[in-house]
Each structure stands twice: as structure tokens, then as C-alpha cells.
Amino acid sequence: MSTILHIDPSVNGENSKSRQLALKLIERMKAADPSATVTSRVLDANVAPAINGDVVGAYYTPADSRSDAQKALLATSDALVAELQAADAVVIGVPMYNFAVPSTLKAWNDMVARVGVTFNYTENGPIGALAGKKAYLVVSTGGVPVNSPADFATPYMKQFLAFLGITDVTVIEAAGFAVDAEQAMAAGLAAVEAAELPKAA
């Protein structure tokens, strides 16, 4: 049995194009592996708040030395990390907001990047601890072409995932919804259908 983690940071709810395409991809994945389970995490300011100095301090405090207050601060981060660790495949919606990722997705990144947990520092640089997972980035934009010089979302997410050790990344492109929504959705659906699916666990 495999586990699929769906990360959805869009503010547009059911109208979100990245969510619609991500769900289509997950449908394909479930059809190919009916035993797969799906964990869905919709990000908002409650689930993925911006980190602060107290949270960072808790990160760098040894687990057996953390106060009750620090443990409470890290409860959400611990839950998000556990979901990511348990996943065999990760489907991340990446709606482009002002050339970059939504603030809640950045906050999610900040909460799952945990030294000694999801990556480690070594003499040869940081080494990710989450190798072997498959990731999909479902990138939707209003007008900016994916992987163009103005696209700071896609390369950032690929770099971030690689930092955690996740290097098998497929990008589902759906650009130009503000220009031609029908064409953008068609391109996104075609990319979903063309995407190579992970092998069943």
C-alpha cells in the first residue's frame, strides 16, 4: 500500500485550478494503485502560520530538552513532518501568486525543513533525509509561462524538495489562466495524463 500526500495552498477553494488538476492526478494515481491512501492537507494561516524566533529556537533545542511550551509550538510542525515522512508520493499545488508561491506554502516549507529530522548538515553540505519519494508540482499561473525568467515558484520548489532529498520531481504545467483559461486547463489536463506515475509500493 502506498501513501499519497496532497498539499493544497490555494486560497480559491474548489475554484482553484491547481487543486482541480492535482485531484485529477491523484485520481490517476488511485486508479493505477487502488490500495493507495490519500492524506490531504489544505494550508491556511491556522495550519501553516509564518514561523517566528520562538519556533526556530524550539527547532534547535534538543528534543529531550524542550519545554512544554516549545513542544506545543512544534506540534503542528511535527504533524506536517510526520505526514511528509509517511508519504511515498507528494502532490503539491503551486498556484503562482505574484511570481512566487503562496505564503502558506512557504510557511509549510519552513515547518517541514527540520535540521536533524528532514535534513542534516555535513562537512559536504546539507543532505536531505527524505530520498526515495516521488513529487509532483502542479503549477498554475495567470499569465507567466512556467520556467520563464519571471517564474520564481517552480525552481524554488524543486530546489527546496532537493534540499530534503526529494529529487524525482515532475512538473505539471498549466500556465495562462488569465489569458485563455480553456487552453490553460487543457494543457494542464494533458500534462496530468502524460505524467509518469510512481510504481505501486
Automatic annotation (TrEMBL):
Binds 1 FMN per subunit. Residues 3-193 form the Flavodoxin-like fold domain. It catalyses: N,N-dimethyl-1,4-phenylenediamine + anthranilate + 2 NAD(+) = 2-(4-dimethylaminophenyl)diazenylbenzoate + 2 NADH + 2 H(+); 2 a quinone + NADH + H(+) = 2 a 1,4-benzosemiquinone + NAD(+). It comes from the Bacteria. SUPFAM superfamilies: Flavoproteins. It is an enzyme of class 1 (oxidoreductase). Belongs to the azoreductase type 1 family. Quinone reductase that provides resistance to thiol-specific stress caused by electrophilic quinones. Also exhibits azoreductase activity. Catalyzes the reductive cleavage of the azo bond in aromatic azo compounds to the corresponding amines. This is FMN dependent NADH:quinone oxidoreductase. It comes from Thalassospira profundimaris. The lineage of its organism: Bacteria, Pseudomonadati, Pseudomonadota, Alphaproteobacteria, Rhodospirillales. The gene is azoR.
